UniProtKB/TrEMBL annotation:
This is Protein MEMO1. GO terms for biological process: vesicle-mediated transport. It comes from Rotaria socialis. HAMAP family: MEMO1. It holds the Pfam family Sybindin. It is found in: Endoplasmic reticulum; Golgi apparatus.
Length: 424
């Protein structure tokens, strides 16, 4: 294969990257003029092909062939455009274009220190605002408590699982701490460099994903460093908003995981960084875009994903009181309801999980972070080269309820822990 040149354009038409190998120089045209011409040409060809044969533009791919060369075009859901010109004898190179996106673009553009990827001004420490109320504020007491729960969980039959992602609850530790341990004990921090923490927004209306502007997150054990580089890469896409300090402080879905993360990573000498992401109410189109964006990170074995979610919130105070007497007592109905959703999550089926949510209205507060994880798994099949594509398996390892509801004026919250591992 002979490669002539490569262009990468942003969704606004700005040329982010250009490299040439074998090509004839256009002496009467400036480089900026050439970039504008190529971007306009691609727009025209894409429109023309879509009118003639809409199915040809599958998964964002397109090719255009002449007697002298072949143009290969790939557009991501986030609007990035990759244009590779080769000799005309080259066949289908979709996997190569996938790799351009998932490897070359991430490593040589987003991670280029001369780029504006790290454009978030990060400073200050986010205080552990829920310490002393939702969990212990004394570091020694908290450490002993976490150690006891992890030791108890290590005695379970699932203690040999090695997590690439986990789902765990975010309620007060009195209620959910023991359940969360069953997910966290499956983490081997040895080869993990960063943790992506995804939690739902409880206090503010949000229809995007949002990043922190803090440099550190405080815990009673030690302060966790935020990965400014990766956060900058995500923010540069234009899809992420930024939490203000009050929003960041108020949200417990992220904070409640910090002590467990800190405890587990003590084994690695605290040598890791955190990327907290507040996940808003995302429709199917946005889930697809964010899923495609996060898929390469999920498939990178140096990364761990932590998904924050409680399950059914049952009771009048939650405006959710369904019950089918055929399922037994109310708490038994809740358990069956939750397990039905858990089974669909284990199938890694985003459409089935969404169908379940529509039919039951189950009050799973982390439905969007869970959906985003499923979307990233789904999109990984499209954006990660097949040779690098991992095969995932999800397993729920613990389930509990804050109380067993027997009367209509009772209430409860359900907690579940799951582990995403590699198959084979």
């Amino acid at each position: 294969m002979v490669v002539y040149n490569l262009y990468i354009f942003s969704r606004t038409g700005q040329c982010l990257f250009y490299r040439e190998w074998l090509r004839r120089q256009q002496t009467n045209m400036t480089q900026d003029e050439e970039f504008k011409l190529m971007n306009g040409f691609i727009y025209s060809v894409k429109s023309f092909v879509q009118r003639l044969s809409p199915t040809d533009f599958k998964d964002g791919f397109l090719s255009y062939k002449t007697n002298c060369y072949k143009l290969h075009y790939y557009e991501t859901l986030t609007g990035l455009k990759f244009i590779l010109n080769t000799d005309s004898n080259v066949g289908n190179i979709r996997d190569i274009l996938h790799q351009l996106y998932s490897t070359i673009y991430v490593n040589y553009i987003l991670k280029n220190p001369r780029s504006s990827a790290s454009d978030i001004s990060m400073s200050s420490i986010r205080e552990a605002s829920h310490a002393g109320s939702w969990y212990e504020s004394d570091g020694n007491c908290l450490d002993q408590q976490l150690s006891a729960w992890l030791t108890e969980a290590n005695g379970s039959t699932n203690s040999r699982l090695k997590a690439r992602a986990i789902i765990a609850p975010h309620a007060g530790y009195t209620y959910s701490g023991p359940t969360a341990a069953y997910a966290y004990k499956s983490i081997d921090p040895t080869d993990i460099d960063r943790v992506f923490l995804l939690g739902p927004s409880h206090h503010y209306s949000l229809n995007t994903c949002a990043l922190t502007t803090h440099a550190f997150y405080e815990t009673p054990l030690y302060n966790i460093k935020i990965d400014a580089q990766i956060s900058g890469e995500l923010h540069k896409t234009g899809l992420f908003s930024l939490m203000n300090k009050q929003q960041d402080s108020d949200e417990h879905s992220l904070e409640m995981h910090l002590p467990y993360i800190a405890k587990v990573f003590e084994k690695k000498g605290k040598d890791f960084q955190l990327i907290p992401i507040l996940v808003g109410s995302l429709d199917s189109s946005k889930l697809e875009k964010y899923g495609q964006l996060l898929a390469p990170y999920l498939c990178d074995p140096r990364n761990l994903f932590v998904i924050s979610s409680d399950f059914c919130h049952w009771g009048r105070r939650f405006s959710y009181t369904p019950h089918n007497p055929e399922d037994g007592e109310i708490w038994q109905y809740i358990e069956k309801l939750d397990h039905k959703g858990m089974e669909l999550i284990e199938k890694l089926s985003l459409p089935d999980f969404h169908s379940y949510l529509r039919s039951t209205d189950n009050t799973i507060c982390g439905r969007y972070p869970i959906s985003l994880l499923l979307a990233a798994i789904e999109q990984s099949k499209k954006v990660v080269p097949s040779s690098q594509l991992p095969k995932f398996s999800m397993q729920f390892v613990k389930y509990a309820q804050s109380s067993r509801v027997k009367k209509s004026n009772d209430s409860s919250v359900s907690y579940a822990s799951a582990v995403l591992t590699l198959v084979g």
